[in-house]
Specification:
Layout lengths: L3 E6 L2 E6 L26 E8 L7 E12 L2 E6 L4 E2 L28 H14 L2 H6 E2 L1 E3 L25 E3 L6 H6 L4 H4 L5 H5 L24 E6 L5 E5 L5 E7 L24 E2 L2 E5 L5
InterPro entries: DUF6273 (IPR046240)
Pfam families: DUF6273
Protein name: DUF6273 domain-containing protein
Length: about 290
Amino acid sequence: MALLTCVLAAGMVGCAAESSTGTGDNSSLLITTQQQAEVQEFETVTFGSYAQGGESASPEPIEWYVLAEDGDKTLLVSKYVLDAVPFNQGNTGQLWSNDNTRATVDVEWADSSIRAWLNGEFYNAAFSADEQAQIVAADLSTAKNAVPPAAGEELSYQDSRAGTDTTDNVFLLSRIEAMDLFNNDAARAAAPTEYAIAKGVYTGVESDASGAIDEEASGNAPYWLRSEGYYAGYASVVLDSGYVNGDGFRQDGEVKDGNADHGTELTSDYGGNFGVRPCIWVETAALS
């Protein structure tokens, strides 16, 4: 599949195919850092099936939002956060403390356990053989986040190291894609399925101006992006509010941050607090 150049303008996404040797992701997207006020509505389609009603529930049809179209292919992102798995299983540390220093191993998307899980366990569980034949493999180019500067030097995003290109059937949005393909935080925010909650995904608690819990705004889940975070061993995320956090969180999971309005104590398994919102390219004819 050719890499795509995607442009967001007034809430509409247009994509033009590039050659496979072109640059993708961060360098080919028109970066739009300003949020738009318009409510963004997505066409919803179903494709594949996955457990959604509880940890032992039977598979149900997966609902997807249509993010972009290119010729006979359509880019989809799951409407809901479908599961809770770490970005990379085994990276040192979950919560920050004096006795638990930050990880020093830098793990990118290409080498992450979440990429292997998406293209293995999830891919085989969610899609039949016929559906797998209708999924179009995506050539991905993922720029690494800014590298921390040496002593006395200023931070430079232009000095970021390039990530390894990959070809994947199932993938996560990059940090820039998450910023550009959605109008605003509200459009990016996603609720988890009951299955994801049973697997331990964190659900946010939002407060209104008076400090009271805002029930309508609460209950969304944070989910991983495929871009690395600022520090080694961190990955970028979309928070439960829909905000894109490029500094990132520990790849084994680090949701609890001590803020009183950010939920109760976590009881999930180590590293299982962030959610997964998969993306796929599918033959458009398969969605009719």
